[in-house]
Each structure stands twice: as structure tokens, then as C-alpha cells.
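Homework help board

Subject: predicted structure for assignment chain

Our instructor gave us this sequence and asked us to write out the predicted structure in C-alpha cell form, then describe one feature. I got the C-alpha cells but I'm not sure how to describe them. Can anyone check?
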Amino acid sequence: MRNSTRQLLSVVVLVLMCSIVSAQDITGYWEGMLRITPSDSLTIGLWMEQDGDSLQLSLDSPDQYTMDIPATSSSWQDSTLKWSVADISAAFTGRLAADGKHIAGTLKQFNKSLPLTLERGHERKTINRPQTPQPPYPYREEEIGIKEKGGRYNLINGTLTMPEGTPKALVILITGSGWQDRDETLMGHKPFQVIADHLTRNGYAVFRYDDYPQAVFTKSTTFDFADGVVMILDSFSRRQDLAPLTTGLLGHSEGSQVAEIVAARDKRVQFVVTIGGVAQKNTDVLLYQVRAINEVSGKLTPEEIDNSVVLSDAVYRAVGKTKDPKQAAAVLRQTMDRLAEKLTAEEQERYGMTLENRRAQASQMSSPWFFNFIRFNPKSYIKKMRCPVLAIGGEKDLQVDAVANNQLFAKYLPKNRNHKFVVLENANHLLQTCTTGSPEEYGAIEETIQPKALEIITEWMEGIRK
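My C-alpha cell output:
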């Protein structure tokens, strides 16, 4: 009888302990190290605060200079924390330890599951972005939604900034490759918010918008994005305050190609600004990136860089010969497997040609977007652009060769005395003042965009108004 009582008492004590742990306050900052590979790790931060009966949670990735990603869902029950972030396809489930100082669990993202232990006691990191505009603003902001053709949901959501008085012109900002929000947020930088703020303070109306909802975006191509800009033009042409305005497009990177397509087809586009703009074939741009970024990184020898370019070229050519994305997926797997067979395990690792990487790349490169992107040649569209063009790029841009592309813009564009081609010294793909131009520097640089670049844009726009 004594033993039974002791066992029952133990159970009661255990239940009480669990209840106490579950009731513990877990608000505040937690941090852990995510081991992606034996040699590669990523700091994960978690900020939690109580809002009434609900738990508000945001995710930090300070190593990637990305902070305050809001959780799509979160729950805290029976000592178990669960949260998910839909935008990055990430989900976590973890349990609070008895000491109340550790939450051990698993982070799932895409098809990977990795252990992650979060602990208290760390100081939350901060990043400095001095150019990001802060309210109050000396202009009016208006949230705008444009529905898809069936009227079921907003295909386009954005912010229109309007200066006091009649705007000098209307500028529509178009983001680069990959899903982007209206500010083109990257590593804590908000280039499009900075540009919109600068232009609006100088008397211009500016519209910046999020890319399509994810479900639509994953099935879309550069031409679909161009259709979205036409929808914006159609919508604004029905507004009395915007319809009379001179209208231009400002596109960054792939956004420049979207602008080229629309400007070639639609006379309502009366000027175009390209930042890191593309006039080359996209295959040439991609191969330039492979060589330029690897040369700066120092991770590969010159011979290995040459080999990497050859491997990439073979893969792009294979995609280019296929008839549709489904065939491209099969051909890509076959091509990359064949190329990988010629490499040692160590070489596969160095060239990013491991089986896991090959499968991920094949999936990405057989998407509708990449299938069309690899075939796109801006030349035929640039030749039909009758409006003035400002092409501005960075001397150290390792994603788009500014000199080569500006030369092609000058060659292909119909003659116009207002065209201007600028290469900024010591500037990268974002037009930040940089050291090497490597994408790895983007987050470490506090400057979002060179003030000189902003001045060049406004001065040129003032010039073409005269």
C-alpha cells in the first residue's frame, strides 16, 4: 500500500510540474542555431509577446539581415509551442524544458526537417537602415487593390503616394526576380520605399505593389507580370486625378524586362527608368553571374570557375531545347545526373551538384517562369520602345553587367536625345556603395541606395519634362 501511494503521489507531482511549466511566461526573445549542414549554420531568433489571449510571434534571421517576419499562426499549449510562417514555408514544433530556459523541437521547411533548440538569455539583434523613411510623411498614402479579371480577389495590392498639389508625373515601380513585396524588401533594406519616398517628396505620384499572391505567382511568367502592369495602367486611366498624368515605369533587374515589354506595346508608357536593367539574353546574364560572383567569393579556383560556367551553360542549353516545363523537368534531371557522374563526391559538393541540390534545381528551373525566362531576349522589345529611357547600373554589379547591358540599350533603342546611360562607381546591383559587389554584402551595408542615384533619377525626370 505504501508503494502504491508513493507512485500515485509521484504522478500527482509530475502533473503539477507540467501545469506549472505550461503556465510559464515564454514571452520575450529566444534564439537558437540551425545546423543546415555540418559546415553551415543559421541563427534563428524568435520574439514573442502576449496580446490579450493570443500569442504574437515574429521570426528573425539576423545572419540574413531579415527581421520581424510575422508568424502566420502560433499556439502555446501544454508546454508545446507551435508556429508557422507561410511566406517561407516554415513550421516549428517544440517543447519547453523543465528548466523553462530551452524549447527543443523541429523546424520544417519545404521537404527538410532540422532540429532546433531555442533558449533564453540572448540579446535581440538590430540592423540599421538609416534611409528607410519614417512617418509622418509630407505626402498622402493610399492603399489600392486591383481585382483579377473574375473579380474574386485582389491580384494586385499596393501603395500610391501622392504629393501635395498636382503631381508632376506618375511612376509605377516594378520589382525584380523572385517574390517581392511592394518595398522590394531584402535583408532589411526597402529600396522601393526609399525610391518612392524620394520621388514623392520631389512632386511625383508613385505606385509600388506586391507581386501576385503566391498561388498565382508560382504559375506566372515575365509576360504575366507585364499583363499586371497593363492592369495597373487600365485602372489608373479611369481615375480623374491620375489619367492626365505623364506615366512612366521604373523597373529593377527583371522588372526592367517587364517594363520593356509593356513600353514596347503600350503608348501610355511615356518614359522608362531601369536599375540594374537587362538588355542581354538571360542566359548570358546567368552565366555572367556564375563567373562574377564566384570570382569574388574566392571559394573556387579559376579552373573550377571555368568548369562551373561550362556546367551551367550545359544545363541552360538543355532547358532551352525542351518544348514545355514538364519535359524540361525530365531533361534537367537527366542532364544534371549525367554531368554529376563525371564529378567526384567532393567536386559535386563544391559545384553545388549533390543529388539533393540537383533535384531542387531541376524543380526550380522547370517552373513556368524559368522555362520562359531562359528563352527571353529583350532585344526585340527594346527596339520598339519609343519613349525616353534612363538606364542606370552599378560598376560592381555582379548580377547584371552594367557596362555590357548599357551598351546594348544604346545600340537597340530607337534614337532619342533624352536617353541616358549611367554606370555608378563602386555600386552593386542595388546601387549601394560597396566593396566587392557580392550579394553577400547587401545586408552588411547600411546604405540602401546611393543618394547620387536618387538624384540622377529625379534630375533626368525633370529634364525630360522640359
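Reply (TA_rk): Your C-alpha cells look well-formed. For the description, you could write something like this. The chain is about 35% helix and 25% strand. That's the kind of observation they're looking for.
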